[in-house]
Q: What sequence folds into this?
């Protein structure tokens, strides 16, 4: 078994940045934090290629003639980041076979938002995973189609207000629950899957490193707090991110395709052992404008309770998968 | 930008961007700017880790292994305030930008 | 005129699809990412066999849709490799948005199209509507008449695409079923290295561009001193300039197609006109017919019959469709009195079929113009027998004599 890489803040701070300042993502956006941490986890960043689906990240980092990327990078279209990555992986495999590429095959990291992953991109992601190409797909999940103006996606949580699932007089926000993308990818039984939170940076980079080392496809699901779309003060981005895990809305786990084991990690492991420390979901909801209608003008205890119960149900399901007695 | 932009014969083909984003100073987005109290700072480096704009840098010692402190690159800092919010010892305050 | 040094070839019995697969085998692309669709399936099947037998070191990516096929080709070509795929009809439509991107990113991808009618109703047989649908995507487009030309043209396509003045993807079309599934005698090179080394000059060398003061490879090569960003966001201040660059590349492709065709002819001993258009008995013609694909074969048979009767009729087969060879059309048809343009593609809402519109637009340049009329035929695999063409050609004779009034467009072969 490989020795685990457990980095210190100094080790992380010393590593150079491959996403540069001057990008035009919103002040307080978590997506560049996710990218920064991902790139810091790569053991051989000089031999790395990035693929990016259409979305906030892609658009705001490459407004022609500027580019914020210090690594080779390709944006193709919205729904095909995984397919494009498949082509890159296959090309280097062939070039290596023909003796035209003498080094190790480059590490391929794919960045996709929930827009380009959950819905329109699900086909190409599933196909790429089934074929078993070696790449790491990092999903930066801001829970709506943010780049086009905050429309709902399959990742938008229950009762969240978006422009296509507004909190109206009759329907209070999105009526559907969030699609469990992590389990869907894990069900392919072919990929290393992990959920991460940029606030819990050490757990984050350790899992990305593990994903890179895995000899096959890997999927990292990162929660990406969006101050514009979730409607909160930019400075609270990391605080809200932390709460997403502390309320068990975005628990930290990983799936090992070799042993088919689910493992709860980091802060979530602590909460599994100390369930009294789980934060009530209301603490998370009340900080965000997209859930404002649950509190004003009238408190919707029914909806808050529905959400809390569902969290409990999903958390218990995860505990069972990971072999915990709930 | 008031200078004349390059014509189609002067820019690279295939739409390849030819200027680093480092030339685009996002610092003028700010309304508030972070001010670091070096005395309070415990060099945990969390502000460097969480800054979305890579705008807080570490002052390294001569060996390059010890952090002496952190400083803000005001050319790019957008004033989001994440650093002030997560600093465990409240060494960072957000101060209204004077223009 | 350089000496021809025709290199060793052997004759095989191959249908159009197999000829395409053999061309791909001889080129040995780095990546083939393809999805099956009738009538192109034999291309992917045959190529899979070459891969499984270790005859090629190509990575064959069995993508889950045509959209992903073209996306993977974009990734592979951006990585610096040679990429090849094949599709038809709805597959081509599904990958539509990526075609434009492949052209913008200046990626020399080659694609074979077994022309098939576009759904609906769903029809698996031959017509050119699928290729016509994507004629503005920025791809160089060539139309082949038979399986031999398919083999030859696909090999040429890689060289055209990779030319530093072009750097555009190339689409090679041939009639679905009529050519794709009809066995013919095809001469292929005995030694693949003739194609890979002698003709193509070895592995693909991505173009070099100047970026931030350095010379870099236009690819995702991690070794580039300045890493390349592919596919940025353009605002209104740069998009037009980027498109203008593409237009120039498309214009450059015209000469390159001719040069590559000539170079290949020296190795193979085979020519198709000058590579752009293939005239037949056009020198003293009063009546000309214009068409693409396999129909010209039948048309030549009818033309010979009519020539024997003393009628001055000739054919101009269009091989290069994009960039559209408008100068050649003006040149070769300037002295003709009546031109019948035959479109095997739909003309929904247009004045006539696509080939007709472009031919007529070209001929508008002439002070003294021929009468140009359009026949839409053969949609969805509707048979196009010699008798049908004879009837149409006789009409053209009538128009020339003044006994028949010229019209804009007619449909032939459809039951009224």
A:
């Amino acid at each position: 078994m490989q020795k685990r890489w457990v980095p210190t803040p100094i080790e992380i701070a010393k590593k150079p940045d491959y996403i540069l300042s001057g990008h035009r993502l919103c002040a307080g956006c978590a997506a560049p934090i996710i990218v920064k941490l991902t790139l810091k986890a790569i053991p051989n960043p000089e031999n790395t290629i990035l693929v990016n689906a259409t979305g906030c990240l892609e658009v705001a980092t490459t407004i022609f003639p500027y580019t914020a990327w210090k690594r080779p990078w390709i944006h193709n279209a919205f729904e095909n980041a995984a397919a494009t990555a498949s082509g890159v992986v296959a090309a280097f495999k062939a070039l290596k076979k023909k003796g035209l590429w003498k080094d190790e095959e480059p590490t391929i990291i794919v960045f996709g938002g929930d827009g380009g992953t959950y819905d329109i991109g699900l086909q190409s992601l599933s196909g790429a995973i089934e074929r078993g190409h070696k790449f790491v797909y990092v999903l930066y999940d801001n829970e709506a189609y943010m780049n086009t103006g905050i429309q709902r996606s399959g990742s938008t949580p229950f009762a969240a207000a978006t422009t296509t699932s507004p909190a109206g007089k009759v329907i209070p926000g999105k009526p559907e629950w969030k699609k469990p993308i992590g389990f869907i990818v894990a069900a392919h039984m072919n990929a290393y899957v992990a959920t991460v939170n940029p606030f819990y940076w050490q757990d984050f980079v350790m899992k990305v490193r593990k994903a890179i080392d895995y000899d096959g496809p890997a999927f990292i699901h990162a929660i990406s707090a969006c101050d514009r779309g979730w409607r909160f003060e930019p400075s609270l981005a990391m605080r809200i991110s932390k709460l997403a895990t502390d309320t068990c809305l975005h628990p930290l786990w990983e799936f090992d395709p070799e042993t088919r084991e689910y493992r709860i990690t980091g802060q979530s492991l602590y909460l599994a052992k100390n369930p009294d420390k789980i934060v009530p979901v209301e603490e998370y909801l009340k900080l965000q404008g997209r859930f404002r209608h649950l509190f004003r003008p009238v408190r919707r205890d029914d909806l808050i309770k529905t959400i809390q119960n569902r969290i409990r149900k999903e958390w218990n399901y995860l505990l069972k998968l990971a072999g915990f007695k709930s | 930008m008031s200078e004349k932009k390059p014509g189609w014969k002067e820019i690279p083909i295939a739409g390849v961007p030819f200027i680093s984003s480092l030339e685009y100073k996002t610092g003028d987005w700010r309304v508030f700017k972070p001010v670091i109290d070096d005395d309070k700072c415990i060099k945990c480096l969390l502000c460097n880790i969480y800054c979305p704009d890579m705008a807080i840098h570490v002052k390294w010692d001569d060996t390059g292994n010890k952090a002496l402190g952190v400083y803000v690159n005001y050319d790019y800092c957008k004033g989001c305030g994440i650093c002030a919010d997560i600093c465990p010892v409240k060494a960072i305050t957000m101060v209204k930008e004077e223009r | 005129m350089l000496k021809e040094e025709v290199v060793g070839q052997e004759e095989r019995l191959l249908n159009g699809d197999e000829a395409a697969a053999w061309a791909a085998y001889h080129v040995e692309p780095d990546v083939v990412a393809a999805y099956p669709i009738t009538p192109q399936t034999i291309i992917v099947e045959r190529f899979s066999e070459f891969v499984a037998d270790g005859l090629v070191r190509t990575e064959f990516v069995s993508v889950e849709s045509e959209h992903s096929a073209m996306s993977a080709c974009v990734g592979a070509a951006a990585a610096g490799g040679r990429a090849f795929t094949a599709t038809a009809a709805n597959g081509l439509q599904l990958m539509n948005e990526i075609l434009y991107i492949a052209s913008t990113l200046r990626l020399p991808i080659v694609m074979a199209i077994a022309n098939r009618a576009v759904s609906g109703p769903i029809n698996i047989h031959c017509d050119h509507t699928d290729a016509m649908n994507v004629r503005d995507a920025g791809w160089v487009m060539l139309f082949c008449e038979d399986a031999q030309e398919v083999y030859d043209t696909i090999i040429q396509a890689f060289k055209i695409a990779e030319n530093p003045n072009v750097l555009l993807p190339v689409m090679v079309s041939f009639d679905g079923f009529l050519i794709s599934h009809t066995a013919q005698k095809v001469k292929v090179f005995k030694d693949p290295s003739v194609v890979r080394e002698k003709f193509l000059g070895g592995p693909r060398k991505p173009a070099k561009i100047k970026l931030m003061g350095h010379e870099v490879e236009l690819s995702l090569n991690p070794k580039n001193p300045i890493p390349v960003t592919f596919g940025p966001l353009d605002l209104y201040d740069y998009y037009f300039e980027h498109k203008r660059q593409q237009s120039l590349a498309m214009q450059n492709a015209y000469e390159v197609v001719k040069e590559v065709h000539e170079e290949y002819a020296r190795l193979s001993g085979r020519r198709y006109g000058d590579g752009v258009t293939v005239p037949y008995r056009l020198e003293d013609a009063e009546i000309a017919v214009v068409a693409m694909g396999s129909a010209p074969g039948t048309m030549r048979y009818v033309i010979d019959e009519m020539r024997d009767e003393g009628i001055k009729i000739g054919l101009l087969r269009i091989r290069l469709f994009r960039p559209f060879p408008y100068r050649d059309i003006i040149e070769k048809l300037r002295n003709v009195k009546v031109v019948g343009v035959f479109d095997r593609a739909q003309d929904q809402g247009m004045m006539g079929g696509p080939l007709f519109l472009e031919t007529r637009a070209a001929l508008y340049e002439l002070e003294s113009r021929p009468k140009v009329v359009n026949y839409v035929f053969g949609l969805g695999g509707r048979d196009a027998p010699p008798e049908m063409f004879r009837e149409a050609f006789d009409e053209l004779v009538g128009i020339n004599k003044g006994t028949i009034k010229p019209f804009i467009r007619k449909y032939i072969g459809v039951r009224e």
Q: What stands out?
A: The beta strands of chain B are 19-20, 32-36, 56-60, 67-72, 92-96. Chain B touches chain A at residues 11, 15, 17-26, 29, 44-46, 48-55, 58, 60, 64-67, 73, 75-76, 78-82, 84-86, 94 (CB under 8 Å). Residues 26-96 of chain B form a domain with the Alpha-Beta Plaits fold (CATH 3.30.70.20).
